[in-house]
Amino acid sequence: MTAKLEDKSLDVAIALTEGLVAGISKGQDWYKIIGTYVDAPLCWAISTGQESRHHSVDSLHKSNCGISRYGSGSQIMAYVLADQQGWLNNKKTGEHSDAPMNFTVLNNFKAMRDSVNDGSTDFFMWELFTTKPYHDSKEVRCIGKITPPWPAFMFAAHVDVLDAPELPRVLNAIQKATTLFMEQKEDESVKHIIRILDYQEEDVHNWFKTVHYAPDHTGISRRAIQVTLSTLQKAGVIGEKVPSMDDLCYLKVGQLIE
What we know:
alpha/beta; 20% strand; D-Maltodextrin-Binding Protein, domain 2; 258 residues; 10 strands
């Protein structure tokens, strides 16, 4: 999505918080964060193949991780997993390790599922409820879950449209749509998800228990941004120098909240 923002095929995108923050931190200066879409964190499933030798997260150190692309959420979360597991530091020397695992770029979700079954990768990480149908069908096997300490999705806009009068109206329209969607979650919204995604009804109800749309889409949590920067830095995804809030966010549209 950030590539589509760069080539201007998109004016506004809803993307993973960690990807947007990491991109700007690495010099992607063609967009800024303008608000928050889903302020609950995203739960990621850690999946292997059915015949994989890996049966727990502990054995994944120095293994091969399938990712959609470099800098994507699937790669960033692998580093967060490595940080949580203590794989980023040598326990004897305390030195930082740059290679807790190897990465194979696979571009799409199906290729990632195929790769853990043909043995070309050891595991991949993808959103839990999107992956669950493939766990249920036993195409792939879930060996763990991980939830980062930041909101799942934020809005970003190309710098050329930041002052466009339509931008606040877009956020307001989406705000009304998500409010209606949640008001109808016991009936119409459940049917809608089942119809377009072919999820089991029980899974849809469980997903609704985890999701929470930001009550004000223009709000941007200062603490969430700081935690994201700190975690990405600790995990080695970004360097020591971090961007300012003004570099990351356009505060004539978005509003900083604590």
